[in-house]
Structures
1.
Amino acid sequence: MKIKAKHLVFLFFMYFLAFIALVAVPGGWAADTDHCLMCHGDAGMVGEALYVDGDKFAATRHGDMGCVACHEDAGYEHPDDGMALAAVNCNDCHFDVEKEYNAGIHAGLASCNDCHEPHSVRGPTEVSGYDMNLMCIGCHSVSRMVDSHNRWLPQAGLHIEAVPCITCHTDSEEVVITWYLVKQKQAYGDFVLMSNEELQEVAGERSITELVDRDGDGHVSLAELRAFNTAREFRGLHLVGMMTPEQVSHNFQVLDNRWDCTFCHASGPEAMQVSYLAFPRGDGSFKRLDVERGAALDALYGTPNFYMVGATRNKTMDILGAMIIAGGLVLPVGHGTMRFFTRKNRQGGH
Ligand code: HEC
Ligand code: HEC
Ligand code: HEC
Ligand code: HEC
Ligand code: HEC
Ligand code: HEC
Ligand code: HEC
């Protein structure tokens, strides 16, 4: 084939374009994550407010994307040009979440990074229920929430400690029980989660999972739970359970079936069979081990700090529980229906 002049012109034009691209769009190739972290990974250099923990970031699902996937306009000239970088738009990639979120009552009231720390995001199975609640209570104070929920929900304080807000306020319906190691102290409830460091101190030479999983097989049996709960060496430690969602939907709303106590206080073989024990990692995220099916029902020795009224193996306790719920229902149903019918008015009045 003979090379014609117009081919040459075309080739030259393409080289020219490639050259322009290299010079004018430095973000993609020169300014990579390590480069950013040379400054932002060093608090002494940029100050606390601009510090980003590179190890935490690398361990997230965003780690591989690198900084510039979100901070698209951080190029060569940054920070010398003194130009502020554009706000990051999570929706470039998470459009499904955005769509769902915008269909809920929260749209426009809180942005993605009001709840998520963008440099250390984790999925719901690696974030504690406790931390999920911390995402809400900066705007919805616990004391106000306990007061308002107490009007229809007995022991609202206990519920808020045991059920993260999102379990009731989004339609994430697949919930499990997750156990956390805690010590007694005041935070917003009467317990605080043990950190990785604190547990490592107790565990000494052992790995922290072996505090409960004694045989180290990666599963927690009912026998191991019982042994943990009765061991003298762990007297300061407790296990508390929370009902956490496996996946999180973002359509924040007030859902009618969450008035229904039996949504959670169910009985029968399917009730509360699946549970996990979550151990804190050094970076604040959690790693779960699975727990023998049905362990959550052994309220006597297996899980003494968790009692799901209506779902235990103990008949007397269940009958008692059923009575509490039935008794409690009289008020919530009557009250609830009334509030439901007047909801429009209430919203107008706010
Ligand atoms: C030479 C050190 C240095 C490097 C390298 C650097 N930054 Fe910065 N960055 C700074 C400083 C200093 C500021 C504060 C600038 C200001 O206040 O004008 C800043 C501010 C920022 C901000 C927040 C404020 C704003 O301008 O919107 C972001 C986001 C940011 N940098 C991201 C990055 C990313 C992403 C990279 C890598 C592509 C990077 N930086 C590389 C020093 C650096
Ligand atoms: C998933 C998207 C995403 C990635 C990836 C990302 N950031 Fe950010 N970053 C954000 C968001 C969102 C903010 C909040 C301000 C905004 O909207 O620009 C932010 C803020 C910042 C700030 C300002 C201080 C702060 O913490 O609010 C700095 C500095 C920064 N990022 C640096 C980095 C560096 C360095 C990397 C890579 C190690 C990185 N970012 C990766 C989304 C991201
Ligand atoms: C450049 C694309 C991109 C952007 C922009 C982006 N993400 Fe992601 N994000 C991903 C990918 C890919 C995953 C992993 C797959 C998935 O869960 O969809 C992910 C996962 C997540 C997860 C779950 C983490 C896990 O371990 O399961 C959260 C939470 C998250 N992103 C929040 C955010 C937030 C908040 C922002 C805005 C600050 C953001 N993302 C911006 C691509 C992005
Ligand atoms: C009102 C608080 C709140 C807001 C606002 C919010 N999220 Fe979330 N999101 C959560 C909670 C709580 C979880 C579960 C714990 C976790 O993974 O951090 C979660 C989980 C996620 C996950 C993982 C979902 C899964 O099932 O694996 C992604 C992805 C995500 N959020 C993206 C976003 C994006 C994008 C936005 C903005 C459109 C957003 N979030 C706004 C509270 C919020
Ligand atoms: C950045 C602030 C902010 C954060 C964070 C936040 N919210 Fe909200 N939320 C609001 C505002 C503002 C409203 C509307 C006014 C009101 O009802 O308090 C609202 C309304 C609501 C409503 C509807 C109330 C009604 O009257 O119908 C629910 C339910 C709700 N939020 C749940 C949550 C949950 C669950 C979380 C955490 C996962 C959360 N919010 C985190 C600001 C926030
Ligand atoms: C057991 C399920 C459940 C839990 C847990 C729960 N809520 Fe609610 N919440 C509801 C229901 C049902 C309503 C509707 C009650 C009404 O309209 O009076 C409601 C009402 C609300 C409202 C509107 C009325 C008000 O009090 O302002 C807000 C805001 C709210 N919840 C936020 C939260 C937050 C934040 C948390 C966690 C700290 C939380 N909820 C925990 C079920 C729950
Ligand atoms: C979203 C799930 C959920 C819903 C809905 C729910 N609960 Fe609960 N409830 C729990 C959990 C989890 C616990 C705490 C178990 C523990 O930590 O001991 C609990 C505890 C209780 C307790 C206290 C038991 C004790 O140890 O003192 C009572 C009473 C109770 N619930 C009644 C109700 C009633 C009545 C309703 C309906 C108005 C209701 N619950 C709705 C999940 C739920």
2.
Amino acid sequence: MPETCTITINGATRQVARGTTVAVALLLAEQPSRISVTGEGRAALCGMGTCFECRAVVNGILHRRTCQILCEQAMTVETSR
Ligand code: FES
């Protein structure tokens, strides 16, 4: 099994280590997980699934908590609006 996987974050291809959470992949890519109603970029805060600050669109599914999801080959991640 390869030690890395390729994912797409906001249209850009990224290589990440297997076992990396989507939240960490977003941070490494310097991308917000979502944009707040006041227009601010938001990112993971608690890292354990309780704050919901890390919500993003993962494989087309809205409001996924990215701190709870491991990156998989060919996964797509988009910043939520
Ligand atoms: S960082 Fe708090 S729920 Fe994901």
